[in-house]
Amino acid sequence: MRRRLEERGMGVQLNDVFRQADNIVTRKVMDETLLVPTSGELASMDNLYTLNETGAFIWQALDGTRSLAEISDMLEQQYDAPADVIASDLLEIADGLAEAGLIAAADINL
Question: What pTM was estimated for this model as a whole?
């Protein structure tokens, strides 16, 4: 999976630290978490994003203080899956969130 990420030109790395974008409102609806952009080009009813339980866990962890490696470790403790699968899935999810403008690089360096 990591090779596929690199082949697609994804620049997200496990040592990266991200925070939620400022213009996103989060709402819990039943078993899903909705991400609603409130301003900018994303602010449209066509641009609602839904997260399942795992996605919501990741979203909450993207607070600008933890690296993706630390979040991967948290996921390993929460879910029964191989560490390399968790890490590659997390990188893919983080890349998608970044591409959609839902997360931004934090202002700290690890």
Answer: 0.81
